[in-house]
Design a protein that fits this description.
The structure is a homodimer. Chain A folds into 2 domains: 5-245, 3-Layer(aba) Sandwich (Rossmann fold); 260-355, Tyrosyl-Transfer RNA Synthetase (Orthogonal Bundle), CATH 1.10.240.10. Helices cover 50% and strands 11% of the residues of chain A. Chain A has helices at residues 17-24, 31-36, 42-45, 55-63, 85-98, 108-114, 120-136, 155-163, 168-175, 183-203, 217-224, 270-280, 289-295, 303-311, 315-327, 332-364, and strands at residues 5-7, 10-12, 27-28, 49-53, 68-71, 101-106, 144-148, 207-213, 238-242. In chain A, strand 5, helix 5 (85-98) and strand 6 form a beta-alpha-beta unit. The longest helix of chain A is centred in the last third of the chain and has 33 residues, at 332-364. Chain A binds chain B through residues 109, 112-113, 119-120, 149-150, 153-157, 160-169, 171-172, 177-184, 186-187, 189-190, 231, and chain B through 109, 112-113, 119-120, 149-150, 153-157, 160-169, 171-172, 177-184, 186-187, 189-190, 231.
Chain lengths: 367, 367
Amino acid sequence: MAEMTVTPWEVVGEIDYEKLTQQFGTQLITAALRERLKRPHAMLRRGLYYSHRDLGKFLDAADKKQRISIVTGRGPSGKMHIGHTIPLLIAKYFQDEYDCEVFIPVSEDEKYYVKPDLSYEQAEKYAQDNILDIIALGFDPKKTKIHRDFQYTTIYKYAAKIAKHMTYSTAKAAFGLTPSHNLGWTFYPAMQSAHIYLPQFLHGPHMTLVPIGIDQDPFMRVLRDVADHPEIKLMKPGAVHSKFMPALKGPGTKMSASDPDSAIWLSDGPKDVERKVKRYAFSGGRDTIEEHRRLGGNPDIDVSYQWLTIFEEDDKKLKKIYDDYKSGKLLSGELKGMLIDKINVFLAEHQKRRVKAGKQVEKFLLK
Amino acid sequence: MAEMTVTPWEVVGEIDYEKLTQQFGTQLITAALRERLKRPHAMLRRGLYYSHRDLGKFLDAADKKQRISIVTGRGPSGKMHIGHTIPLLIAKYFQDEYDCEVFIPVSEDEKYYVKPDLSYEQAEKYAQDNILDIIALGFDPKKTKIHRDFQYTTIYKYAAKIAKHMTYSTAKAAFGLTPSHNLGWTFYPAMQSAHIYLPQFLHGPHMTLVPIGIDQDPFMRVLRDVADHPEIKLMKPGAVHSKFMPALKGPGTKMSASDPDSAIWLSDGPKDVERKVKRYAFSGGRDTIEEHRRLGGNPDIDVSYQWLTIFEEDDKKLKKIYDDYKSGKLLSGELKGMLIDKINVFLAEHQKRRVKAGKQVEKFLLK
């Protein structure tokens, strides 16, 4: 396996998650911190979210009934698959449990800058499409602000305030920019920072928490450094960092639009889901039923099991699945069946809501 | 005198204007081209505007009654002095003679990025103040669009289209960017390019002409290079380049807000103008009246005479002034008196119009 490289635009090799926290300077989410969370979501309970910055300060502010907010975004590089919902569902968890405002920047500009063949128009179309999926996840229109960089261009004013105090050299060090990167990509760290400071720019200093994949942490590191600048004077935003959702086809594969069978898309029908999980979900089971019954499966590498840790809310049920699979009582086909059911329930609901989302867009968009 | 350095943000040393055209790759405005201009403005007739890019193509388009437009901007780093009107007055000349639309971007973002001590709020205030002066110059509200980067943030969408196709390395080479420059400054070439392509982004491909100081030409060079990109496909904007207006106090001095007596400000009253011109205007006259009468003055280094080449429209009168000053018939005090009168007539009218400009702002602002 290749050596680990993790940047906001590239993840290569086998990931050593603890090493990443050291490399980035983030903290592991301790059991004590986890216990402070109100009815923690499965992804928080089970360690998919495993690292943080200032989660404690965020919870302190929540305890004191101070204003708090959540920011999590979407880079619209294509239609959305199930893995893309991970930060969004955690944002929704915080909205539901902490009754706080959620800001969702949709950065079509980033994708436009980063993908040589993505046209401006296509980037906008993906953004519009993805916004329907975001709304369909069930956010509260009264407490959710979605904004696109090519539409809510007011964001440039806020990006300017950051950009004045962030040097090229800082961005270069954090993101590995080179002189052949285009100016948009070079500027993007200021835009991303503006997204994350936006709740504070609009409502004044308060604690914001940002659910993101650990690969996005370099943005947090760089943007937190400008918080104290006399011209900024905002609170350093906190973050909770997730591990990567295992790819459907297992280690060394990616969920990518270039291979429709590599992922479960939010637009997939029940038959697609069944076919893909049955055919492609990387299995920790044995080669034959007899062997499986005798030796048991390995849930720790089984993608269907890993995905159930996200989709099966009930801890007891999940434990039983784990134990039964490990003992050989539960067969791979049965495990896959459970996942297929869970995903199809989720997607049926999602797709129903998505049809209605078109009419709700205006309620969500920041003006 | 120091060696010549000319960048959009720094002008040092004695300027060799012809050398600059070679260095930047621009063309001298020939007599033949000048003769094609409709009733050329004094600044065009007398060579203050001396260099160009594609002025011929612009005039061809005008001859063919195709759409043409003018873009010239203002970086609001403080209140405006008389030198700042030079590109604006030429823009107005083209509007008057060629009946074309004029776009005037006001780049408070650039000044904010470039001046470490300029606050965001102050940059906006200067922009608002300068817009009144711009309007007071007499632009036609039906054919003039003024826009500020922190207000008409839609410009970011257009800057993005340029930014994708302009590398850091290109901007670095053209503008001498270093890693310690902030991200806003680094991105600014894309914003400036968007200003100049804006008429084409809004109305489709056509010839645009940009009156600018020759020091600003690196922007033109860089932005013209992206015109042919398949995602841009616009016409390369042309430019007419002016020499620098001589500073009031003469060679080696600058007109700067840090020394209010260094320039004539658009807000100066008649007494200010009289005092400053009499006391500070660098003179090509002799030390004594007797000597002046006997040997004559040197109009070519005399700031009052140089400024009259801008403010005295009548070529015959100007020639007589030149001849009389050179022969010693016209004294320095008399020459200064002529300039004082010209400036005060201009400023009285300007200041009257400026009072009314406040009510007109909305008519000029691009939405």
